[in-house]
Amino acid sequence: MTTRVGLQIPVGLNFDSWERAGRQLAGLVNSSAWWLGDWLVYGKDNYGDRYEMGIRAAGLKYQTLRNYAWVSRRFELTRRRAMLSFQHHAEVASLPVPEQEHWLDAAEQMKWTTKQLRNAIQNSRGDAAGKTDRAASPVRRLEVPDNRFRQWRKAAEQQGTELDEWVLMTLDRAAERTLEVQEVLAEGPEGGA
Questions:
Q1: Within-domain flag for 51
Q2: Measured on CA atoms in the order 6, 86, 40, 32, is the torsion positive or negative?
Q3: φ and ψ at residue 38, rounded to 5 degrees
Q4: 130: alpha, beta or left? (left if phi > 0; alpha if psi -120 to 50)
Q5: Is 10 inside a domain boundary?
Q6: pLDDT digits over 130-186, tens only?
Q7: Structural domain span for residue 1
Q8: Are 114 and 85 spatial neighbours (Cβ–Cβ below 8 Å)?
Q9: Which residues pair with 7 in a beta bridge?
């Protein structure tokens, strides 16, 4: 029996049933990220500013939903891989479509975890750049107040990613949105119609 705050498991449940329930629960968690992302995309596309009221009424965290929506927008239904988790897709969402396809193909074929996929992408970037390029590339440091650092770490943990990856992914998304808005503004009123 399920409730909003727990799962009551019958006494004496056999292992096979317990294991099957775990697979079903994991499937629901993965699917719910897609469902919530698609729900928010629809709300934003169809209800303008009012969709924020829907988010508040649903009692969901806005930033988490925005992350779900961002990934959902980057992958139309036909490109989503049922054999991979939502988080696999999130790992490659900031890449161009051909690279997304390449990495998702590899993750499916190799049965990679999200972490293995992330490491493979990082290793390929390191190999492609070469050690001399990495040494020549400046590293920037940013001083962050403790309260923000703790909040960012908590958000990264909730998304199941490392803090540095979460920060980079979040900043990349913000930059993309800002640049898209600037592009639309630069086109003027007759540009997009």
A1: yes
A2: negative
A3: -65, -40
A4: left
A5: yes
A6: 444 444 456 677 787 888 888 888 888 787 777 777 888 888 888 877 777 676 666
A7: 1-74
A8: yes
A9: 2
Residue 94 forms part of a structural domain: no
Residue type present at position 174: A
> What is the distance, to the nearest Å, from the Cα of residue 109 to the centroid of all Cα atoms in its chain?
21
Residue 172: inside a domain, yes or no? no
Record the pTM: 0.60
CA 12 to chain centroid, in Å, comes to 38
pLDDT, tens digit (0-9, with 9 covering 90-100), for 44-83: 888 877 777 777 777 877 778 888 889 999 999 999 999 9
DSSP 61-78: -HHHHHHHHHHHHHS-GG
Please give the tally of structural domains in the chain.
Answer: 1
Which runs of consecutive H residues, i.e. helices, occur in the chain? 15-47, 51-58, 62-74, 86-92, 97-110, 114-136, 146-159, 163-187
Residue whose token pair is 């396809």: 101
Residue 154 CA to its chain's centroid (Å): 15
Distance (Å, rounded) from C-alpha 47 to C-alpha 177? 19
